[in-house]
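task queued by scheduler; priority normal; single chain, no ligands, no partner chains; default sampling; output format set to structure tokens
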Amino acid sequence: MRHNLALLIGGLLIVTLAACNTVQGVGRDIESVGRAGKDVMH
């Protein structure tokens, strides 16, 4: 389970960092990754 969660968060982080091109976008992307990780844990 932990391995899958780590892979999910890592994949989301890579995708979101590749997709954003402004500092504001980075903040939103990091927030969405945090939300996704929280949803997976619950």
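post-processing summary
- Residues 15 and 38 are 18 Å apart (CA to CA).
- The chain has a mean pLDDT of 78.
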